[in-house]
Amino acid sequence: xxxxxxxxxxxxxxxxxxxxxxxxxxxxxxxxxxxxxxxxxxxxxxxxxxxxxxxxxxxxxxxxxxxxxxxxxxxxxxxxxxxxxxxxxxxxxxxxxxxxxxxxxxxxxxxxxxxxxxxxxxxxxxxxxxxxxxxxxxxxxxxxxxxxxxxxxxxxxxxxxxxxxxxxxxxxxxxxxxxxxxxxxxxxxxxxxxxxxxxxxxxxxxxxxxxxxxxxxxxxxxxxxxxxxxxxxxxxxxxxxxxxxxxxxxxxxxxxxxxxxxxxxxxxxxxxxxxxxxxxxxxxxxxxxxxxxxxxxxxxxxxxxxxxxxxxxxxxxxxxxxxxxxxxxxxxxxxxxxxxxxxxxxxxxxxxxxxxxxxxxxxxxxxxxxxxxxxxxxxxxxxxxxxxxxxxxxxxxxxxxxxxxxxxxxxxxxxxxxxxxxxxxxxxxxxxxxxxxxxxxxxxxxxxxxxxxxxxxxxxxxxxxxxxxxxxxxxxxxxxxxxxxxxx
Amino acid sequence: xxxxxxxxxxxxxxxxxxxxxxxxxxxxxxxxxxxxxxxxxxxxxxxxxxxxxxxxxxxxxxxxxxxxxxxxxxxxxxxxxxxxxxxxxxxxxxxxxxxxxxxxxxxxxxxxxxxxxxxxxxxxxxxxxxxxxxxxxxxxxxxxxxxxxxxxxxxxxxxxxxxxxxxxxxxxxxxxxxxxxxxxxxxxxxxxxxxxxxxxxxxxxxxxxxxxxxxxxxxxxxxxxxxxxxxxxxxxxxxxxxxxxxxxxxxxxxxxxxxxxxxxxxxxxxxxxxxxxxxxxxxxxxxxxxxxxxxxxxxxxxxxxxxxxxxxxxxxxxxxxxxxxxxxxxxxxxxxxxxxxxxxxxxxxxxxxxxxxxxxxxxxxxxxxxxxxxxxxxxxxxxxxxxxxxxxxxxxxxxxxxxxxxxxxxxxxxxxxxxxxxxxxxxxxxxxxxxxxxxxxxxxxxxxxxxxxxxxxxxxxxxxxxxxxxxxxxxxxxxxxxxxxxxx
Lengths: 488, 488
Known about the structure:
Two copies of one chain form a homodimer. By secondary structure, chain A is α+β, with helices and mostly antiparallel strands. The first copy, chain A, folds into three domains: 25-284, BirA Bifunctional Protein, domain 2; 301-398, Anticodon-binding domain (Rossmann fold, 3-Layer(aba) Sandwich); 415-487, 2-Layer Sandwich (Translation Initiation Factor IF3), CATH 3.30.110. Chain A has 17 helices and 23 strands. In chain A, helix 5 (53-72) crosses helix 11 (273-284). The longest helix of chain A has 27 residues, at 388-414. Chain A starts with a helix and ends with a strand. Chains A and B meet through strand 2, helix 5, strand 3, strand 4 and strand 5 of A and strand 2, helix 5, strand 3, strand 4 and strand 5 of B. Strand 5 of chain A pairs antiparallel with strand 5 of chain B, so a sheet runs across the interface.
């Protein structure tokens, strides 16, 4: 069950090491971000990236996909302030302990002594208002969401999109009458996030974090850990059941159906737009550049005329006819600039990750056909003009499905069982994820962390995995099956 | 030409004073904001409002309407950081002089000595990157936009939506080869903003600000001043021609078509989402509450069953049939709760500003008709079930047009010519806008400001108005016709 041989047996080792993204992820990633106009990291304040046109476009698409699902399920949009007072921020004990070291503070010109805390997340900003809004069970469930930036002074090395100090995300917060309503809400949140991630073909593990790693103030935390080519998992989203901890700290009370009063149950969950963008680039990209799922690609189809002496006009006319036919349904560009050869254009649009490329030369004109190349497989197909829309639709679907399936395959391949700390270390060194049995003791978790260079990320939430043997660290009977990885 | 009589002649004085929004604007406005779930002003940090579900919804609609137009005209989305360094912020002399007093500063946990400046606007954040992005004329025009919050420590009294410290807006920034390209861009920006404001029926003056009131660092500034029931105009958007001031300060250079090098020409423009929201509420609202244009209304149609003993089921079934037919095109709610009478529901949805109300009782069921009430005029019409969509569409259009025309009429009525400081003072006291002739000297502008309690807002940009006489302050020959008002 040891790592590389198993993957090697699937022909994956070759594929993996042939890609710069696996052998030298940082360089591959950073170069691509700038060249494909995703992010410019040259901004003079550390941890504050500039989202260029394609990065901003994809963030906006993710936002709109997620917000639609949230609103369909009854979450109302809200916008809460960026800042809170130090007093409000300190209300929930665990919460402040967890976040205090990394908060930015704001000085106001007129009142230097009263510093404001910049949100690292919005519980302490929203919940004092929830106290005012909630009177009785008729006000519940309360379900709100906002897409905003949060700010955390990360002390670990920053990395564009993965680990930054200005973090674009969506956070939803809900309040319920009963603990089972809150449980149901946790499941709804997981379903919503899973749907968006499926739309962009991202694979991940849904893990219940160990207690020592839960959100400060939560009863428990569920996280989506996406795989990454360098082996460091990428937490793209989290869902927390807050129980009544915050309701008590912020004195949120309601009148129950039976007339009695009490604290309600809360959940909150966050979806990291920039980390999902990172996952899209990292999971699907290849040595030619980005490979974008159609759902978020700024340009979904590029049309490239292949000039041929004496046929220039009819080729361009046909290109325009094709474009007109497609542009009501897809984001299409006709690249008819004359300062690049068709080959240079192919190279450029492959780098940009455009899902489908249409080439039109004299033969396509005379045959009334279209030659389409898929970005993921680089396969070319020729289709009749009359079948254009249905062919494009089919190819887009196939491409999206292929990206998703390839990524799922990789996720499965990366998970490798380990029975000793040495095996875990070897697996992590090979940029994989180790699955082990654990007794549940924090001492063993610390031991693992110190010795293998990775940490326990948690047990599967969506799949019940029963331990069969003993703890990988202490040898006592195992209580749970957990995943160990390096992490961003 | 003196104020009130002219308006009185049009029957407006009566209409005006009958409305609480004209006689006691602040109370009317603040009560409505909370009741209609627009904004909650009870947040404990001054100048930082909480946008509730309907406020956030309308902000999002405005954003999406504006961003579509910006992107159709070639503006690319970007997201720049919230903060810059003090050094970068200080680059353009006039700019820092204008904004320094009102900037918030951020302390970073690890490096307290290096404070960061929170954007009051993003010129000094974007332009160092433009320097890296722009090499030659092929990179121009550069047109980008972002919808973000900016932060200004307003020292005047804060007022929800109008004058806050956290300001949701869209800012666009463009770079051009020639001064005439920049001029054209100013006109394009004005056209885009006019279109959005037209969609929500807001009336305003497009004014070229006097030099002493232009954007710090700009060559000149154009502003959209919307009328307000309390007479204080509401600047909802501005468009600035920056010339080459910032390009020089930030060393932005490009290679021209002829091979020579030089600084490009820039424009920037901002659209204040919360101020436009304020204008929508203030211009269209009445004593029953909000009156929302269909383009931004969270609920466009509410269906209210009128219960009748023995017919409950057929009434609800018919309501559902009507709803199903409408909900693919409009945002529809069927209010079938049983804890309110139909009358209470009417009252509630009128307060919420819902454009159309459908009432369905036993008569509508038996006749297969629908009774529709317009929120603006409260007129009721009965339509056949078969004509439902076309009737709704017509009523929505008429309502939107009526709101726009009523607001335009009010704008025209509020403008009153004045020939002396006394006349100006009287006009402003009557919550109107004075039109005067001015010599163009700053001394006279100061004199006016000190004596009348309002300020020169500028001359019309869209209409050429030639002065015929003398300066209202000094009596010397006038150079321009300007508008004077109190302002937020």
